[in-house]
Design brief:
The protein is of the alpha+beta class and 136 residues long. It has two domains: 56 residues; 67 residues, CRO Repressor. Helices cover 49% and strands 13% of the residues. It has a four-stranded antiparallel beta sheet. Helix 1 packs antiparallel against helix 2 and helix 2 packs across helix 3. The radius of gyration is 20 Å and the shape is elongated.
Amino acid sequence: MYNFDFALTVLTGSLLAGTVLNVDTSVRIVLMAILAIFAIQFAITRRRHSFRWVRQLTDSEPLLLIENGRILHDDLKFSRVTKDGRYANLLEADIFRIVEVRAVILKTTCDISFLHSSDLERTLDADVLKGVRKRV
């Protein structure tokens, strides 16, 4: 799910929750608003496949946070991943030393992927990181 789709899903849920909790809200108006949201989402999704600028506006790209044991501080700052959060994620992935990390990627779903190896001579193929953005 793209960030744009997620935002529209939350908006739709908020409209429905507001209708359920507020008896004064007109169901007809809320249904029209939800139909308008779906129409906007449909139109933008169709344009997303045809126009690059729409994709750039609505979609996020995976972001490289650590590469070959080197922390990319500017990318971490941009992604707002905290130092504590980063180390917790490293421990969760059974990584004991930063130098073992070949790549840490923040995916568009806000999940973090780890590519690591205890063989320090092992490097990543460029194709593995195809489509992953590196800000620096």
